[in-house]
Design goal:
binds guanosine-5'-monophosphate; binds magnesium ion
Length: about 180
Amino acid sequence: MNDVTVHDKTFEVFITNEEIQKAIDKMAKIIAADVKDKQPLFLVVLNGAFVFAADLMRRFDFDCEVSFVKLSSYVGTKTTSVVREIIGLDEVLHNRTVIIVEDIIDTGITMASTIPKLMKLEAKEVKLATLLFKPNAFQKDFPIDYIGMEIPNDFIVGYGLDYDGFGRNLSDIYKLKE
Ligand code: 5GP
Ligand code: MG
């Protein structure tokens, strides 16, 4: 499969869309077994998780709601230490089962500050579903309930993830070519 150029950098295929779909199939079944009777609220973290969320939601054949929040803290190819507030949350979380839908957990800094904020809004439980997880970058210790795939510390784009705004529309996931 071909390399792609995003801005000034070259990326190579890392995870094909087919592999992604298999991982989501698995995850959706596990999530359904856990929460199918709880009318969960899927809280999708924009922008990166929008593609993953669309595929995940359509495999959840039970009552649920979906909402979107923003808390982007990523600039270029390095995580900034600035964690922003939750923007755009207008659902009442009181007594709800909330499933955060993330594209990727890297250092964990973003979610470590976000989960307590959601708990403060009196959610009954807050679960975390991430398509990708970088175990070697993870600096925190909160539990990650649902993980699609573990990956090494490469910078990746595609399937919703961007490099400075571009590359989100790629169907496969690409990694930076050294
Ligand atoms: P963390 O706070 O866990 O370090 O990173 C959280 C956010 O950084 C993710 O939700 C994602 O938006 C972004 N991020 C982390 N690693 C990557 C990566 O390899 N590529 C891209 N495009 N974004 C990433
Ligand atoms: Mg994200």
